[in-house]
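Reopening: structure tokens for the 6-O-phosphono-beta-D-fructofuranose complex, inputs below.
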Amino acid sequence: MKIGLLTGGGDCPGLNAVIRAVGRKGIDYYNDKFIGIKHGWAGLMSLDYVDLERKNFSGILHLGGTILGSSRTNPAKEEGGFDKVLKNFKELELDALVVIGGNDTLGVALKLSDKSIPLVGVPKTIDNDISATDMSFGFDTAVSVATEAIDRLHTTAESHHRCIVVEVMGRHAGWIATHAGIAGGADIVLIPEESFSIDDVIDKIQRRMTRGKFFSIVVVAEGFQFKENSWKDRIRETDDFGNVRLGGVGELVANEIEKRLNIESRVVVLGHVLRGGVPTAFDRILGTKYGIAAIDMVHKEQFGMMTALRGTKVVPVPLVEGVKESKTVDKETYEIAKVFFG
Ligand code: F6P
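Re-run output (same inputs, fresh job):
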């Protein structure tokens, strides 16, 4: 078969592990031919692609980023965008596409699948907010990087009797904040799914102080908002999919703490550090399992589906299940983090 591979949306550790697994099994077991579409849907609209040979699928397992490049380009936003994609799919004489992306990229894949493009999706995002799968690859790396940062910040916060606010990614879902908060022993974790007032936060830190703890670590997801104000005031711009560019909530939290409790506070924004660099062993393995499953699904003609982790098994699920809503943090997990607040 002749198969096109593309990566879309924000980059994520483990993308190259998926690409490698798809290509290696495709060439060695199925005698497939591959082309790499550059920069997500943008490349399929403008016919920007490269032929991929076996050597291109070597030496990339441990690399961060994506050898194919990525973008947040949405064909729906461009005049005739979907027609261009359909035309170029034919022009390239492709038999199938493997689409590696998050909710936005897989949402476009679903629309194309409804227009009879044979494709298989692979769920990618550090945010872990894709439904129908227990986990997307990239999440484990982001949590590990955030946890290491929290560990380092702990010792300096304690030495200086400071409150350090650690801002992590997560627009609608606070998975990274919750997991890194639990792993790093955060004193408060603030996520978009749970509403807190400024007083609630101040209260928790004050409670620590009465127990002789004059330092605190607060982990906040970028999409968190206090009951009193809205992140809508902090929007800088939106992308092609209407996602807002956030940032700044950490500073807001740190300022309130400093002002009301008179404790020196600092903010550390981890941002894109969470997305860059080498994937953890877990993400390399999950990415590899997803890649192998994706190429097998192509050959079984399980189109309009994506790979999903269910327990320890990778299974095919309909794309529509994956993208129907953003998977938010479940109450049980957040309750575990809450036990250690204040
Ligand atoms: O990949 C999703 C994400 O990690 C979000 O949590 C974050 O808001 C966004 O990427 C920012 O990415 P960019 O700066 O590439 O738009």
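The chain has two domains: 2-137+278-323, 141-274. Residues 9-10, 102, 125-127, 169-171, 222, 239, 246, 275 surround 6-O-phosphono-beta-D-fructofuranose (CB under 6 Å). Marking as resolved unless the reporter disagrees.
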